[in-house]
Design goal:
44% of the residues lie in helices and 5% in strands. By secondary structure, it is mainly alpha-helical. Helix 7 packs antiparallel against helix 8 and helix 18 packs antiparallel against helix 19. It is globular, with a radius of gyration of 22 Å.
Length: 484
């Protein structure tokens, strides 16, 4: 990784968007030295908030790694002839526009990692500035797990197919903020470092994270009346941060990528079986009732989601205008994607036919449809980008558990989507095929479908919506600035 373009030594500009008035009245964020920022626990909180803001950038999870570039790789949207979106679906990696799209992702992911490393490089030596019990552990754990999250997606996009790790790019696992180039390392070393970050993050918060002790409803409404009244609201809203269960969910995703199936199952099962102190389920499947109240992202399933204040405007510019659309006939969605079940809540509740300015009609997904921030209330605010979901944990458990047990997880998943009447797969191979199909349906506009294809090295015949002219190529090249 080149040494200057991705690393800034003060406060990386990102903090200029944080509304922390006490610092804005002292010194501009872009000029604040690390020793000033990290002289208080508030400074560490501000820096970590800045990391989450970076993650919502359009070159990262606010767009490219959820809704745009990554979904264009799997031909999720109708395309314009001879444009970058078409060439992405054709795996034309030599095209300048395609290369630019990947370069933006690569740069933004390592910018996020650089910001995290700035925090981690200071937090232990400045531990004495933390006076709030548990805050040091939460901040450090979140930083470590975000570092692992971003590195995993860099690996999943730019790295090799996991079944053939010697054939593909090696990548740097960056743990120190530095102006020196970071060496690219073998796949197994990358794996070891990533899993260590998650193990260390888990150990820090396993016994103290409020999400293990309070319900999601309490975390959403901290106060005396809810029974959860922390002195610092930083301990609330844990479902919007890399919390303990998010770490376990990310472990499940990572272990699956590394084909460590027993550990993937163990981690996924822990999330699935998570309970509140009163015995109720911590995370629940979304229902048709949630879709009715316009909770199209099914927020009850979010083990970790990013709150995107601008989601209403993004939906308007991307979907309402037909920039991201799929087909003008219902059969594209109902038949090709969902198999015309007539009952699937996604088939009936997640897509709509819209009329564009030119009077043409197209289908758009409603997943990110949100209420205008000027009109939204606490009970109707679902502006969350899904990052780790309960449904993914069920699919991981279905794939990695012993067959009979896995079949039960898959049946539970299907029942939740109101397609429990479908015939269950007869063997492990058939189950895997059906699971991959569900990744495509379930995580449309979330980016996970392409990664499921790549992990299993799916052939073109099973690659839904692949253009006839496409030659499937999962080995995405490094940006030219990195290929040495």
């Amino acid at each position: 990784m080149k040494k200057i373009s991705l690393i800034v030594l003060t406060l990386f500009g990102i903090m200029s968007t944080i509304s922390c008035k006490k610092y804005l009245t002292i010194v501009p964020k872009t000029q604040m030295p690390q020793d000033v920022l990290f002289s208080t626990e508030g400074g560490f909180k501000d820096a970590l908030t800045g990391v989450y803001i970076q993650m919502k950038d359009n070159s990262s999870y606010g767009g490219a790694l959820t809704q745009t570039t990554i979904e264009q790789l799997s031909s999720s949207w109708d395309v314009t002839s001879n444009a970058t979106d078409q060439r992405l679906g054709l795996f034309n990696y030599t095209d300048a526009g395609v290369q630019s799209s990947f370069e933006a992702i690569y740069a933004q992911q390592y910018k996020i990692i650089s910001s995290v490393n700035a925090i981690l490089g200071q937090i232990d030596s400045k531990k004495d500035v933390f006076s709030t019990p548990g805050l040091y552990e939460l901040v450090k754990s979140e930083a470590l797990s975000i570092r692992a999250y971003c590195h995993l997606d860099i690996l999943r996009l730019f790295g090799p197919i996991p079944s053939d790790p010697s054939n593909g790019n090696t990548l740097p696992y960056v743990r120190v903020l530095s102006t020196s180039p970071n060496a690219r390392i073998p796949f197994d070393e990358f794996q070891t470092l990533l899993l260590k970050d998650l193990t260390d993050a888990e150990a820090l918060v396993k016994d103290i994270d409020p999400i293990t002790k309070y319900t999601l409803a309490q975390l959403r409404a901290p106060g005396i009346s809810s029974g959860f009244n922390p002195t610092d609201t930083y301990f609330a809203y844990r479902y919007l941060r890399m919390n303990y269960y998010a770490i376990k969910a990310l472990q499940a995703r990572a272990y699956l990528w590394f084909n460590m199936t027993d550990k993937a199952y163990e981690a996924a099962k822990l999330v699935i079986e998570a309970k509140n102190e009163n015995g109720t389920t911590k995370f629940r499947f979304g229902t048709s009732a949630d879709l009715t109240i316009k909770d199209f992202v099914l927020s009850s399933e979010h083990v970790f989601g990013l709150y995107d204040f601008d989601m209403f405007n993004k939906y308007t510019s991307r979907y309402s205008t037909g920039v991201l659309k799929k087909g003008s006939a219902a059969t594209t969605i109902t038949a090709q994607l969902y198999g015309t079940t007539g009952t699937d809540i996604r088939e009936s509740g997640l897509w709509e036919l819209v009329t564009l300015a030119n009077a043409s009609k197209v289908y758009v997904i409603k997943k990110y449809q949100a209420i205008d921030s000027k009109l939204v209330t606490a009970s109707t605010d679902f502006k969350q980008i899904p990052m780790l979901r309960l449904s993914e944990m069920y699919l991981i458990a279905a794939e990695t558990a012993p067959f009979t047990e896995g079949l039960n997880y898959f049946k539970s998943f299907r029942t939740a989507r109101n397609i429990g009447q479908l015939v269950l797969p007869a063997n492990a191979a058939a189950l895997k095929t059906e699971i991959i199909k569900e990744y495509r349906k379930e995580f449309y506009a979330e980016g996970q479908g392409f990664f499921a294809y790549k992990r299993s090295n799916i052939a073109k015949a099973s690659f839904l919506f692949a253009p006839s002219a496409a030659t499937i190529n999962y080995l995405v090249p490094l940006p030219k600035t990195e290929a040495i």
